[in-house]
Every structure is written in structure tokens, then in C-alpha cells.
Amino acid sequence: MTRERADAAKNRAKILAAAADIVAERGIEGLAMADVAAASGVGVGTLYRRFGDRSGLAHALIDASEREFQAAFLTGPPPVGPGAPPADRVRAFLHALVDRTLAQLDLLLMAETTGPFARFGGAYDAHHRHLTVLVAQARPDVDAAFTADALLAPLAANLVAHRGAGAAGIKLGLDALLDGLLPR
């Protein structure tokens, strides 16, 4: 893995801070590459070379919270992290993912809808692997990989936005699925 130069890392941090501020002030619709470049003090060309487009910038903004989320379910305290029974961890993981999805819904909408498979890979693969392992531990008699996909499907950003449900409603729906699959 190539280490990022110190000046490049500093520019990246300035760019992401400026982009986050713009999204917080104006929403995702207000995220213009020229405005991010001006606010961060870098050239527009640098921004495009570094992130490609607004979608790439959205992915970079999502990345920091995704790293925190992955640390929580891999090494954090139970029930999201290790130490709780698999069924409890599945429920806690999905509830935490609901909160994370809603917190960055506009960014996820942009990032997940740039192409037919934009949602898949990266974070989705990590979430899927994690759920597959937990489901297999809790219910060795089911197709754990398929079940993981089925549990993640309601959290697609475009579906969450379309349905317009809040965290409580989404969690209740997931709990109903889980009660049939992994009874408490």
C-alpha cells in the first residue's frame, strides 16, 4: 500500500472538511466541485484528479463514518461488537446500520445510484460478510449469504428515501423479519 504524501493528506482533509461543511449547509444538491475547491484552497483540477466527480467525493465523505462503523462491529463492545450471541449481534448491527444510513442518506443516494452495481462492493461486501457469518452461526440451516442480502436490501439508500420511514419504522420492520428468522 502506498502511503499518502503529507501535503496530499493535508489537502484531502481540507477538501473533505470543506465538502462536509457544504453538504451540511446546502445539502447534497449544493455540493459543487468548484465550490469545494474554492473553500478548501485547492484547484478544481486537483479535486477532479483526486475524486473523479461528485460521486467520488460523496464516497470519500462516507468512508470516514464507514471506518468507524466497521471498527464498532469488528472490535467494539457488544452487542454490535464481539461478545454477544450471534442473533443479538445481527439485530444490533442492523439497527446501527439504519442509523448510519439515515445520517448520510443524501450522500449514500448519490454514491449508490451512479450505476447499476454502485451499491455493491466495499462497505456492502463488508456488511454482507459480517452478516453471513453471524447468520450462519445463529441458523446453520439457512442459506446465510442469501439471508444477508435479504436483510441488507431494505437499507438500500434509494428504497429508504422512497419509503420515507424514520429509524423507528425501519427498525420495527427489520425486527419483524428477524423475529421469524432469529427468535429472541
From TrEMBL:
Domain of life per record: Bacteria
Signal peptide coordinates: none
Domain HTH tetR-type residues, every copy: 9-69
DNA-binding residues: 32-51
A GO MF label: DNA-binding transcription factor activity
Keyword Phosphoprotein in record: no
Pfam family of the protein (one): TetR_N
InterPro entries in the cross-refs: Homeodomain-like_sf, HTH-type_TetR-like_transc_reg, HTH_TetR
Keywords annotated in UniProt: DNA-binding
The protein's name in its UniProt record: TetR family transcriptional regulator
